[in-house]
């Protein structure tokens, strides 16, 4: 099945470059381009793509507000934020708004294609090095309240352990080794954590783990 992508960036050359990379893959297709966030929101509503590559800084409506609006609408479209700098404070806000990860604009073509596939299948794109920097920045910006403490109380002790390890950017395989569990069992625990906390994916789970002091920057 072909993964349908919308590219949102105010630079024509950037959009064209992403289109060339994406359309060169048999399983990926660009179905629309937007030069601003408002247009991106309209395209998501009209085309229902699987993934949006969302630039942060755009006119009319920036990528953060566009991401927030797309997620709030209940759309199943996944948002991959694209930025020039990995420490851009706006990226952190976009992740909290519901983006499934972020990419740097200097990403290699094969990495871009792989990232789109990862997000399209429902996983989140969050490397350990990115998580460390992200949590360090959260330490200075203060927590946002994603799930409520009451929701956290619904987690079992094992699920809390899994949440803490998600917050440290461990994969399911790494969590399985750490806890001496099967990957299938870990996957079940991860699904339970996301469901009970009302979270979209592992990115929001990592944010929640910090926001509620389950994991701190010094733990990484």
From TrEMBL:
Domain Response regulatory, chain residue ranges per copy: 4-120
Biological processes per GO annotation: phosphorelay signal transduction system; regulation of DNA-templated transcription
MF term (GO), any: DNA binding
Pfam families on file: GerE, Response_reg
UniProt keyword annotations, A-Z: DNA-binding, Phosphoprotein, Transcription, Transcription regulation
InterPro entries, per the entry: CheY-like_superfamily (IPR011006), NreC/VraR/RcsB-like_REC (IPR058245), Sig_transdc_resp-reg_C-effctor (IPR016032), Sig_transdc_resp-reg_receiver (IPR001789), Tscrpt_reg_LuxR_C (IPR000792), WalR-like (IPR039420)
PROSITE patterns, A to Z: HTH_LUXR_2 (PS50043), RESPONSE_REGULATORY (PS50110)
Top-rank lineage group of the source organism: Bacteria
Domain HTH luxR-type per the UniProt entry, residue ranges: 148-213
Positions carrying 4-aspartylphosphate: 55
Protein name as catalogued: DNA-binding response regulator
